[in-house]
Each structure stands twice: as structure tokens, then as C-alpha cells.
Amino acid sequence: MEKLNYNKLAVKAHQNAVNHGFWEEKNSTEHCLMLIVTEISEAVEAHRNGKIHDFEAFDKYNGGISDEECFERFIKDSVADEMADVAIRLFDLAGAWGIDFDKMQPCRYFRAFDKFSFTENAFGLVKGLSRTQIAIEKRVQFGIAYVFEWAKSLHVNLPWHINAKMKYNENRPPKHGKLY
Questions:
Q1: CA–CA gap between residue 124 and residue 48 (Å, rounded)
Q2: I need a surface site. Which of 54, 74, 75, 110 has the fewest CB within 10 A?
Q3: What 8-state DSSP symbol labels residue 60?
């Protein structure tokens, strides 16, 4: 899987969120974390509903229909797409806080994802993000490391899904048609 530059991705994710009105007001850490938790919940719902991306159909029809329609038909709202949303929200928060991943010690968290159910792994991420005794910068770093390793355990090419979702998000309406 390709390696992403976390600092560049944080700037890009945050700028896209700003451009779409998500930061018209300064948001509290709790607000931002709750939106990340909602994305984790959407990943659980996608998993419960068996919503898996269809790369074969995506590749077959890509070019024959618009990129947006192809993404919506074969990728959007899948488990992998929702995991990308979790990562994008984490990178947005990193961009808002000016987190410099190059100056941080590597995250040393390990979890045997295959020993736990999808919902247990989702809850593990929520618990880690909610540990208020740990600085927000470290929680964001933990969350990113966690979702990448979790995705890898599910054979999800998370960098591809992040890039595809960020491209899709560029053309969405303000706040993606939501209140916040």
C-alpha cells in the first residue's frame, strides 16, 4: 500500500473542510471527536449491512459514467469508504490543531484486530479517542494509526479510499448538505 504524507494530508483535509464551511465557527475538541465517532458508527452500520466496495465494477464503469456517479454506485457508504471518512476527520482535526506528525514519536499501539469482532474494534477506537487524560495530539495520532492498521487487517487499501473520498468531497455542497 502507498505511504501517505500525514502532514500534507492534514493540511488538505482541513482546507477542504474549511472550504465547505465546517470551520465557520471554532469547534470544540468534543464536537470534532463526536463527528469522528459518528463516522466510526457509520462504518459499523456499513459492516452490519454487508456494504462492501466493488472495485471490479468501479474499474469496469470508470470512464463510461462520471467519476462522481461511479464512486456513488460502487464505493460510497461501504465499510472502506466509512473508514476513509474516519481518517479524513482525524486528519482534518490534525490540520485544525496544526499537528506536525514529523515532530511526534511514532505511535506504538498494537492490537490483534483479527482477535476481535468489527464492533469490538470500532469500540476500541472510540475508547482510545475518548481518553481525556491523553493530549489530543496523541489521540489523533493514535486514531490514525489505529484506523490504518484496522483497515490493513481487513485488506482495505485505505490510502486509495482516502484519496478517492477526498476527491469526491471536493465537489460536495457546503457542510455536505448537513447542519454541521
A1: 17
A2: 110
A3: H
CA-to-CA dists, residue 173 to 12, 13, 17, 63, 169, angstroms: 17, 16, 11, 23, 9
Apex 60 CA angle, 57 and 63, nearest 5: 120
φ, ψ at 57 (rounded to 5°): -70, -40
Residue 120: how many other CB atoms lie within 10 Å: 11
Range in 10-14, 41-45, 80-84, 171-175 with the lowest mean pLDDT: 171-175
Q: Which amino acid is at 13?
A: A
Alpha helix ranges (H) inside 49-117: 55-61, 67-74, 79-97
The pLDDT of residue 3 is 67
Query: Measured between alpha carbons, how far is residue 171 from residues 17, 39, 103, 120, 166 in Å?
Result: 12, 20, 33, 34, 9
Cell triple for residue 117? 469482532
* Of residues 148, 172, 16, the one with CA closest to residue 83: 148
- Give the other-Cβ count within 10 Å of 76's Cβ: 17
- How far, in Å, are 3, 94, 146 from residue 121 at the CA level? 23, 22, 9
Record the cell numbers describing residue 43, joined without a space. Answer: 462504518
